[in-house]
Amino acid sequence: MRRTDPRRSDRPIVKPDRPSLELPITLPPQINLPPQINLQKDHPAMLKTLDPLLSGALLQILADMGHGDEIVIVDANYPASANAKRLVRLDGITATAALKAVVSLLPLDDFVDAPAAVMTPATGRPPVLDEFQALIDGAEGKPIRMTEMERFAFYERARGAYAMIATGERRLYGNIILMKGVIRPDE
Are 101 and 54 in contact (CB under 8 A)? Predict the structure, then answer.
């Protein structure tokens, strides 16, 4: 049976003689990014000055966080799925790249002595911690104190965080907790 669509005379309406039993199948999008993808280069930001690593879900979490709430950025070895209240996956992305994106928007709490905390080994200081320090100092425009915590104390504190970002960071001890501060009105 063929008829013409009254809204468009050039478009015929085709009705099958019997109903189709086929249903459209939608597959879930691939969540994990291969490590070789460079989001900065392969997927440029569609908003000015917004880091392309900041997905809609992550932006929503950062906006929903209140003063004093904490967000944790963890490495690939961290048991994020078992410990996060809200989990954002940035597989294939380093913890330092994730930190740089987050602190480009998130104010750190200046009402506390140390608005950042890192996991440290019993001996030595992993170089990734120095990179974390440089990134938060640069974002805040001044030296920021980071608390150094042993592994199990870090795990305990991280469990209470508002959200967690699981990265593909392969360097050991690539974990940091950030406490959200306030944005003051212009005076």
Answer: yes
The pLDDT of residue 49 is above 70: yes
State which fold the 53-179 domain adopts.
RbsD-like fold (3.40.1650)
Identify the H or E element spanning 164: strand 163-167
Reduced to 3 states (helix: H, G, I; strand: E, B; else coil), residue 127 is: helix
CA 102 to chain centre: 7
Whether the pLDDT of residue 186 is over 60: the answer is yes
Torsion of CA 30, 74, 170, 149, to 10 degrees: -170
pTM (predicted TM-score): 0.76
Active site residues: 67
Domain ranges (residues) in the chain: 53-179
Q: What's phi and psi for 48, nearest 5 deg?
A: -65, 140
